[in-house]
Amino acid sequence: MSGAALIDRDFSVPDIRCAGCIAKLEQGLVRDQRIATARVNFTEKRVHLSCVPDAEIPDLIGAFTTLGFEAHPIGKGPDEADGGAESSRELLRAVAVSGFAMMNVMLLSVSVWSGAEGATRDLFHWLSAMIALPTVAYAGRPFFRSAWRAVRHGRTNMDVPISIGVLLVCVMSLFETITHGPHAYFDGAVMLLFFLLCGRWLDSVMRDRARGGVTALLKNMGTGAMVVEGDGRTRWVDATAIETDMVMLVAAGERLAADGVVVGGVSQIDLSLLTGESAPQAVHVDDRVHAGTLNLDAPLRVRVTATGADTALADIARLMGEAAQGKSRYVRIADRAARLYAPAVHCLALMAFAGWMIVGAGWHHSLLIAAAVLIITCPCALGLAVPAAQIVAAGELMRRGVLIKDGSALERLAEVDRALVDKTGTLTLGRPEAIGLDQLDIGIKSLILALAQASRHPLSEALTRGLQSSDVRPAEVTGLRETPGFGIEARWADSIVTLGRPIATGLGDALATELAVDGRPVATIGFADQLRPDARQAIEALRSEGIDAMILSGDRAEAVAPVARELGLTAQTAMSPQDKLAAIDRQTALGHRVLMLGDGLNDGPALAAGHASIAPGSASDVGKNAADCIFLGDRMMPVVDSIRMARKTQRIVRQNFALAIGYNVIAVPLAFLGMVTPLVAAIAMSGSSLIVVGNALRLKRAIR
Amino acid sequence: MNGLILLIPIALGLGLLGLAAFFWSLRQGQFDDLDGAALRIFVEDEKDGTP
Known about the structure:
The structure holds 2 protein chains of 2 kinds.
Chain A: E1 7-12, H1 19-29, E2 35-41, E3 46-51, H2 57-66, E4 72-74, H3 79-113, H4 118-139, H5 141-152, H6 159-178, H7 186-217, E5 224-228, E6 234-238, E7 247-250, E8 259-264, E9 267-270, H8 272-275, E10 281-283, E11 288-289, E12 294-295, E13 300-306, H9 313-328, H10 333-358, H11 363-377, H12 380-399, E14 402-404, H13 407-413, E15 418-421, H14 423-427, E16 428-434, H15 442-452, H16 458-469, E17 478-483, E18 487-492, E19 495-500, E20 512-517, E21 520-531, H17 535-544, E22 548-552, H18 557-567, E23 571-572, H19 577-589, E24 594-597, H20 604-609, E25 612-616, H21 621-626, E26 629-631, H22 637-672, H23 678-697
Parallel strand pairs in A: 15-22, 15-24, 22-23, 24-25, 25-26
Antiparallel strand pairs in A: 1-3, 1-4, 2-3, 5-6, 5-7, 7-13, 8-11, 8-13, 9-10, 9-12, 14-26, 16-21, 17-18, 18-19, 19-20, 20-21
Chain B: H1 2-27, H2 34-40
């Protein structure tokens, strides 16, 4: 082994499913000379490689392919994801510290409650203070920061009463300790922080997990292209390093990394992610091609004319920025509750203080009562009410193949009452599927499978998929050879069989392939984009949930009409991204809350603008980034499942709020009367939190 | 009272030990891949490098 420094690379491998995959990858990859170590992260579906610096990305991807896995390089700078993980880790540390402090302060408090007196009680109070005060200073920071931010902007949120409550309680308890008083609420303050931090941490974990899933799905990050050098050699160039006037070699089945002009080759390009158009477009030399489109047929040489921010995508990105502003104005349910709750709590505490002052209890006693009111009303259960329910729901949905990006997405999803649906790739599968395979002779089918499974061409893959699902066994062929741009050839018995582009060209631009034996055509198979298997069922289920759907498509009317008729939907066709935005605005103006379902780049702005949005896992990266939720797989029912789940979650959240308020209705009068000792506060607080969490766990068996 | 002087530091010390151990394991990345850790028990070690 040479002493050259190894470099680290991360790959996202969505197909890691079991222990076998871990073993296969970790042990198989290191057999490649260039790879020193491989480590699988199962949770994030990633593989971390240490490899020699001159290992090219395609070679590494090839190493995955030989093991039977599809891998996508992950770019170097996932700053956002790291930031999220870092903040979760910070919260987890705060949870651990406050949990430790809570247990130890509680240990001391129990001794006090069970009758410690005099010097012992003072000692225990001092010890509690020594543990609690640093803990509050450390673990309370997330709340203090957020409360300070809110106050400085003249707003209020849940964190303002929390911060005031905790600080006031600490000061009062310290004073009580110094003056040898009987009641110190250090345990209450620390316990409050612990429960609230648990809620925060759950919220943050949920966001991280979804973000990890989304990152694993994003394919374009860190992609690139094979670039042809002046001397004819090719070299892999990262997408960020591609410059204009480079010549890219784009293989069939590869997505273009930059805009350009074709300088060599003839092929068909799938534009569906860019425009929603389902029919592929034939391209010849001198035609313009765009980044993000898929080369279907034959290798192309493309001279790059624009990269990165200059591509046709830049326009869409600008529209998306504007569209997303509406969503950022959405106020989460917990904050809406806090708007009412925070002033009420402050008033109550003030009234308690004033009331006891008027009856002449002295300012020390009155302040103590006010502190008790604050700590008892502090939204401990409220802080857990929302995240506990949402993380259970998100976990349950993730098991069904739906990724929810954050809690606010679940809340917005519960409110939608109108669905606008893109056609290509959303209602349909967005990839060519072979038509009429059933009508073929079994012998022909096995011959086709034998040829098709040897190729990674998109049409061959569609054939393989279609035939394997109907239990066809491949025929025995020898001497398989693939000619890019034409097809596959092999020897079968005494004949030469070919599977490739039809010789007769009476089919226009429609995708088709032909099986020929000794040059004589035997069977021609057409390809078309098919509806998702349960699209009709899903649309009907949406309707029964009170959500009417409508198709917004960028495709031509002739292509949309059959789909619309099949599903019984109205449709608007040939829409640009701006048109889709306008359609959403119109519905919003009518008072509807719009659920946008879409996948393409052209849906990006609409996905960002919708009140809530869902994209399939096969969507463009832009689509996946803009959408609130992503569903995996070919079936569409997960969309309906997630809406039902979101509504159930919302119901549970409301119940939790009701529980928390009910608890306050009982506890606040007691606190007012000065009957809430630290013991009562501790029991009330932990009791209400447990009830709220228990209620949230009911969601686990909510969808069936 | 004498017992307390001994017992309270022990109780706190043990608690702190647990906290330190938790932080240590967090930094070691033991919580990075919780689902994978559960599956790794099924992975057989392959010392000789042959399939």
